Amino acid sequence: MNSERDSETTFDEDSSQPNDEEVPYSDDETEDELDIQPAVEPEQNRINREVEATRETLRKDCNWQVKANDRAFHEQPQFMKTEYLCLKKSKYAGNAIKTYKYNPITFLPLNLFEQFKRAANFYFLVLLILQTIPQITTLSWYTTLIPLLLVLGITAIKDLVDDVARHRMDNEINNRNCDVIREERFINAKWKDIKVGDVIRLGKNAFVPADILLLSSSEPHSLCYVETAELDGETNLKFKMSLDVTDRYLQEERALAAFDGLVECEEPNNRLDKFTGTLIWKGRRYGLDADKILLRGCKIRNTDVCHGLVIFAGADTKIMRNSGKTRFKRTKIDSLMNYMVYTIFILLILVSAGLAIGHTYWEQQIGNSSWYLYDGKDYTPSYRGFLNFWGYIIVLNTMVPISLYVSVEVIRLGQSYFINWDLQMYYPPKDTPAKARTTTLNEQLGQIHYIFSDKTGTLTQNIMAFKKCCISGETYGKSYFHKWHGKLEHLADFSWNMYADGKLTFHDQYLIEKIKQGKEPEIRQFFFLLALCHTVMVDNSDGELNYQAASPDEGALVTAARNFGFVFLSRTQNTITISEMGTVKTYDVLAILDFNSDRKRMSVITREPNGAIRLYCKGADTVIYERLHRNDPQKQTTERALDIFASETLRTLCLCYKDISNEEYEAWNKKFMAASVALRNRDEALDKVYEEIEQNLILLGATAIEDKLQDGVPETISKLSKADIKIWVLTGDKKETAENIGFSCELLTDETTIYYGENISALLQTRLENQKNRTGSNANSSHGDNENFFPPGGNRALIITGSWLNEILLEKKKKKKKLLKLKFPRTMEEKQKQMESKRRAELNKEQQQRNFVDLACECNSVICCRVTPKQKAMVVDLVKRYKKAITLAIGDGANDVNMIKTAHIGVGISGQEGMQAVMSSDYSFGQFRYLQRLLLVHGRWSYIRMCKFLRYFFYKNFAFTLVHFWYSFFNGYSAQTAYEDWFITLYNVLYSSLPVLLVGLLDQDVSDKLSIRFPSLYILGQRDLLFNYRKFFISLFHGVVTSLIIFFIPYGAYLQTMGEDGEAPSDYQSFAVTAASSLIIAVNFQMGLDTSYWTFVNAFSIFGSIALYFGITFDLHSSGIHVLFPSAFQFTGTAPNALRQPYIWLTIILSVAICLLPVVALRFLTMTIWPTESDKIQKNRKKYKAEEETWRRRPSVFRRGVSGRRSAYAFSHQRGYADLIASGRIIRRRRASLTAVLGNNLAEVRRAEEAS
Fold first, then answer.
1. Model confidence over 27-64: pLDDT tens digits?
2. Annotated binding site
3. Which of 273, 346, 1017, 1174 is 20 to 30 Å apart from 761, CA to CA?
4. Choice among 61, 454, 508, 1090 that is catalytic
5. Is 454 designated active site?
6. What is the DSSP string of 890-936?
């Protein structure tokens, strides 16, 4: 039993605890890349592993071969793969992107094929064929053909318009231009013509068309700056650098054309941050990694020209591999509607079968003995009953509404245009309107349970603003709110500074005055440190200072120092030049101690013009305070300021310095140089040396940066939460950064109890073990699944990293042990045991995932950080699968595409550089705040309108069709129709379609402002209260009752009737006109009762439809049309003759009154005794409207309490350009030799290295 338990262990106990700082592996990583070698390994396993190592490496990593400037190389037989049957195609994808479905040749057949896959359309096609058989039809063929052609035509036109838009988008991308080597020179070519192995040239601000190996650039050492906004939404620059050998030899066009290197690398995969390969050129091999690869979708910045070799193209690029599969999305109502249509099919068959049996019985009892009914055909009663079964299938076909689907499509199309035209969702700064990119999901917007949001670029602007600071214990940047004018006073004036960028808004002019006076040197020292201690690069090629920072935080701090008079002007490998209040000074940079996620700080050691050596340091308060001098006088006051900054959710860091003597520096520098050239564990050695010098620091103060949220984010999240929508944030950022944003946008508050991955892993493991104990070996049992993880009540949040997510969800890959492969066949018992073990593992995994989803859904909010694009999609899929909830994903980068495609509804934030998320989304707009209007207004209205439309549509069709059923009892079950053929044809097309379409498009129970003011109205859609099987059967019952009234009241009135002229109007045709007139008036007035929002258009449609019916009926019953088409129009004179009788009008009025009065009475009682929340709001809408005119949105009063989470700056900061600066690779000067740098200390350093 123990051994079995061990085999089912939930967690890998040998492995170390997941690292919160690391983004976990992606799908394509091999097990060997993921796991560490075990400390103790069996000898035989070790021998086997060593023998197969080389062969295994070649087999795994070098399957993809790319030859530069040689297209024929990639067409060789070994690179071909079988596509269809014997047709072969190169495994190297072309660079053209294809998202369209049709072309001019395939449109008609493919579109018809897709439409006839829909059950209702196929049913009506079969019905049309049956109507051409004279023996079974009593209804003309055109009654089905005309509506069917209308449905197919409208749907085809809509599909064509959508596909033309896809063609245009594809053409726009595929026809972008770039320079490609052809015939030994660069020529302009389109993206779609680029192939793997091509050498291309890109200019500044150009998008990268494929995944390319950087060969050279116009920058020193072939550096290339790229912006990855289209990949991850981040606008800060990242750098790539080519190999030294390609930088030296591949700068000229002739050399690039002659380049014939061979790249052997990994197969195409979705790992954005990893690449493994080798360049073979001139008989030598050079290692390649991700720093030398430019990915498709990146944008070239601050680099005039760069050259690259195409490695992956088109669908093989990493950005496309992260896009995931395009899923066919359908709404919950669509699925329910299909099941209801199937229910109607079954009812139709049962009713037709019952009536056919009735006809068989009638023929046996009456038909055979009535000589006047003989039709000259000697059919048996059972055969006549069989024919009548198909006859009733035709007659009652309108129970299955053919126009239902096309009406739904028209309503959705109109609702999509309303979203597109909504000016309150238009974002003027980027000229970005809201866009419904699909027309099939609108009502699902009113049923959302969970929202999954990206952080960077979605909740935040990815813009950092310098807001406050504390210098020598005094805080600057206080805001003063004018209570009369509502304006912020004391705005700092930077007009005196010629270098000010004009973008900084700082609310404290007093600090400017102190800087100008210069009486407090600590203040100037503070901003001097910000201008000096960083790894920012400056570009002034266009006459202006443009800073290139490794993170937005660092750029914000250097820009703040610039505005306050301390301007970073330029740097070389060993110097930095700063303008200090107009005086330009140059300082020697002796060392840059760069940031990393463990150190959480960076330092710069400089030699000042007077010869003094000083260390400047900035970093997280948690690490800086440990290294301060024990008697530092500013500790307490600065800590209080940090607490205040933290309560306002600002990102903070501490600034400090230290004077160093020449002797201390020389001794430290020897250790630093030795660590710099260490061959093993260099990073650890450097960190140790850095630690020695960063001690006994003197605190200058602290900065407070605002990670700017998009406008209205907290308010939007608050409104959506009140609508019972849970919001999960899925981001690749570090845990502390994500947590800080959680507080900023009010997902997290002081009252929130936060659980982390390490907290819940024990809970989940205990729950899984308990489930196993209760159910034996069946780990998938539902016993105990309903138990809550937490006590009811309370505000809880879960923050979990990608590494913990893999650990908890049992997604962590295990290393396969390479055992000695013996050729002995396994026994049947061994195979069954292995299969059982796999089955148990799968059940464990499924149960663990279900438990995790249950636990997470008990939390008010969830933040997943350091997650890969695939993990984002996995989290969405888990909630879809185990909660059966409607999900929405919103993001702005390519790393969000998979999540957007996986969710029921995907929303893209447009207007930024990145457009990948928008292209894959169902809806797009410019700001996150528009999401509340999309859901609470458009989504809710769309859901209510669609539900009302469907309920009414089923009602009017049952009321119309079942009159035939009642009529059958009086015509010998002969499949005779109760109406004229043309009335049957036009009923759903003209007489009853317009009012219900307009309600589906325009109706609203409350206004848009009240919908947003009362988010709880949204809960109706989440609970499916307005359209379900109960509502369907109520509509069915309502239709049955209406059909009874429509048939039997005229029938009773016609039993003994005499007209004014002494003639009896009780013939079949007059009865058909009376019943039809009663039906049209009743169903249109019923629509009027169901209308909540009356406009002239609604009123016109109802009375216009009735008038249209009478007008067309009189025309079709005229003698003139009968003369032209005698066989098609046989009701000559019926309407004029029947409708001039007052008795018939009284019959019609009575029928309509009996249909509608009970409905009116029931509605009155319901609204009086059991009013819904919507009814209550409608009743008080005038009061609410008056309140809105005087009500103003109050500013958010949220203030976060004292917390230890104030160090978000240092945690989020990326590793800077220190290595490039120190090495001189980023500077246009040539790098000095090692001897020149170390001088006489070189031999000493070597000896120290050997001794270590």
1. 444 333 433 343 444 444 444 444 344 344 444 456 78
2. 454-456, 554, 595, 618, 651, 731-733, 866, 872, 892, 895-896
3. 273
4. 454
5. yes
6. EESSGGGHHHHHHSSEEEEE-SSS--HHHHT-SEEES-TTHHHHIII
